[in-house]
Amino acid sequence: MIDLHIHILPGLDDGSRDTEESLEMARCAVAGGIKAVVATPHVMTGVYNNTREKILAAVQELRGVLQTHNIPLAVYPGAEYMLEPEIPRWLKEGRALTLYDGGKYLLVEFPAGEIPVYANQTLFEIALQGVTPVIAHPERNRRFIEDPDLLLSFIDRGALCQCTAGSLTGLFGSRVRQVAIDYLLDGCYHFIGSDAHGTGGRSPDLAKACRVAEGYSAGLGELLTMDNPERLLQGHAPARPPVLEKEVNKSKLGFLGRLWRKKFTSR
């Protein structure tokens, strides 16, 4: 498996505190069947001012430490950007760090309790530069929880989505889990990432969430934790996840939800 979202670089954010914790996270990842990770420290103006150069240097250093300790985990560069209006400018100036440093996909998160008024315009401007935004853990955002149709509108404009593994296993509570499952069945997720911050509750574990996804559709867990992350590594677009049948009251789906289901189940 490949983990596209992990805070394993020591001392850069609220994830790994030091090299020893990074080593423990790496050992945990390998033991759980993860062969590669994309290190995605937070980039948040005024809080985590991690530059492209700083992240790349930290990745190189961690690679050397892992080699010294004979831990067979490949580490690639990336970042998790809090959505800010300045991101398109950073991309244009070559200052932003995309997943795998491949120049095609950018991991972004929204504030936990809101969808910023500038979200649509910023994502549009990111896409204008040939970069596809990947929305991290939408199931944990209060506005997406209250109105799931909002996420479908972003996907319909070309955004991709990444689910946090712990959301599918109940780590963040039953409501988040149900929203995550609903999004999974609606074909909203292109990837599952651990969003690991250590070796405790939020550890680098994809296996449990992979099994949850497989329980709904054979091959779905493999698609979201292996195939699609690998496709990004090779410079290819991810495969479209399937839309699965579920027992719903269609009158409660909302307009965008019905439109989404009609559009993508008719293909």
Automatic annotation (TrEMBL):
One of its GO terms (molecular function) is protein tyrosine phosphatase activity. Its EC number is 3.1.3.48. The keyword Hydrolase applies. It is an enzyme of class 3 (hydrolase). The keyword ATP-binding does not apply. It catalyses: O-phospho-L-tyrosyl-[protein] + H2O = L-tyrosyl-[protein] + phosphate. Keywords: Hydrolase, Protein phosphatase. InterPro entries: Caps_polysacc_synth_CpsB/CapC, Pol/histidinol_Pase-like. Belongs to the metallo-dependent hydrolases superfamily. CpsB/CapC family. This is protein-tyrosine-phosphatase. It comes from Desulfallas thermosapovorans DSM 6562.
